[in-house]
Amino acid sequence: MRCPYCGKADSRVVDSRAADEGATIRRRRECTGCGRRFTTYEVVEKVPLMVIKNDGRREPFKQEKLLNGLIRSCEKRDIPMERIVRLANEIEREVRNTMEREIPSKKLGQLVMDHLRDFDEVAYIRFASVYRKFADIGNFITELDELRESKKKKD
Predict the structure, then answer these.
(1) Could you read off the pLDDT of 8-65 as tens digits, one per residue?
(2) Dihedral angle at the C-alpha atoms of 82, 83, 84, 88, nearest 10 degrees?
(3) Which H, E and C letters describe 58-120, residue by residue?
(4) Residue 82: what pLDDT?
(5) Which of 24, 78, 98, 146 pairs as cysteine with 20 (C-beta 3.0–4.6 A)?
(6) What does DSSP assign to residue 142?
(7) DSSP at 40
(8) Is residue 1 classed as helix, strand or coil in its secondary structure?
(9) Beta bridge pairs of residue 11
């Protein structure tokens, strides 16, 4: 690692510890040339993930967009922000674990719905109403009936 002070390419690691819940390694380094210390962070490189929209456009996957959708679905519910962020991380991890570089937005939306179904029923219905573009009350009733049926099967 090149020293930010003197530019020498040799340094030694003085201390290493996990940061960001183990997603990052924080290292304190000491330059063998000037003796000054500096901090570096090591993270796993993420493969770029593209979302294929319904009209065929491709855009980069953005966790912030996923998180905002989840927050809107959970609005005015007694759900701690920490749980919502964990859910967003879990969904992103599941998508990235497929090792595919592109995911259709329909598949991503369905994955979010699958996770929300068990997470919070009201948030699930809210998300479904936007995602499936409910046109009338009949769509809500149909979705609620399906939710009840799946809940009965689990019990």
Answers:
(1) 999 999 999 998 777 789 999 999 999 999 999 998 777 789 999 999 999 999 999 9
(2) 100
(3) EEECCHHHHHHHHHHHCCCCCCCHHHHHHHHHHHHHHHHHCCCCEEEHHHHHHHHHHHHHHHC
(4) 93
(5) 24
(6) H
(7) E
(8) coil
(9) 31
HSE-CB at 77 with a 13 A cutoff on CA atoms is 19
Residues 125/113, Cβ–Cβ less than 8 Å? no
- pTM to 2 decimal places: 0.64
CA 128, CA 45: separation in Å to the nearest integer? 33
Half-sphere exposure of 119 (CA within 13 A, CB side): 27
Return the DSSP state at 130: H
Residue 72 · residue 126 · CB < 8 Å: yes
